[in-house]
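Summary of Year 1 activities. Much of the first year was spent building the evaluation harness for sequence design. The harness presents a backbone, in tokenized form, and records the residue chosen at every position. We chose the following record to illustrate the format because it has been used consistently in internal testing since the harness was completed.
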């Protein structure tokens, strides 16, 4: 594959970067700035005085579930192109299929391990 075939992609990346920088610069130059005011910077709660913190703390289990979701989501994203590109090889070529089956087995073992360790349970008490 020749280097000239990547020229349209390079141009598209340059246009995207330029547009992003131009929008940020225009917002900075032409944007309105109001003076700092503690009453206006506070959260609006329909006239009720706000209680507690603006940003509640989440438990470590919440972040654990989020990380596990991202990890398995990325692994599925790696499997989809394989299924599209090697669709013809999967039915007839065993050396191509074996690494994918191994990858799926590792995913299955990982999910079973998470279920066994109760990593997907947040233990959030129900409020009435």
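For this record, the design step produced the sequence shown next.
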């Amino acid at each position: 594959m020749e280097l000239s075939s990547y020229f349209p992609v390079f141009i598209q990346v340059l246009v995207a970067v330029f547009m992003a920088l131009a929008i940020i610069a225009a917002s900075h130059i032409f944007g309105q700035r109001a003076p700092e005011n503690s009453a206006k910077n506070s959260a609006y709660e329909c006239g009720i005085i706000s209680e507690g913190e603006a940003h509640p703390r989440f438990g470590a289990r919440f972040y654990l579930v989020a990380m596990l979701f991202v990890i398995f989501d990325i692994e599925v994203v790696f499997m989809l192109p394989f299924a599209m590109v090697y669709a013809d090889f999967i039915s007839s070529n065993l050396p191509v299929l074996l690494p994918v089956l191994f990858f799926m087995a590792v995913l299955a073992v990982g999910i079973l391990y998470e279920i066994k360790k109760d990593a997907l349970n947040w233990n959030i008490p129900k409020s009435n």
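Residues 60-85 form the longest helix (26 residues). Quantitative recovery figures across the full test set are reported in Table 2.
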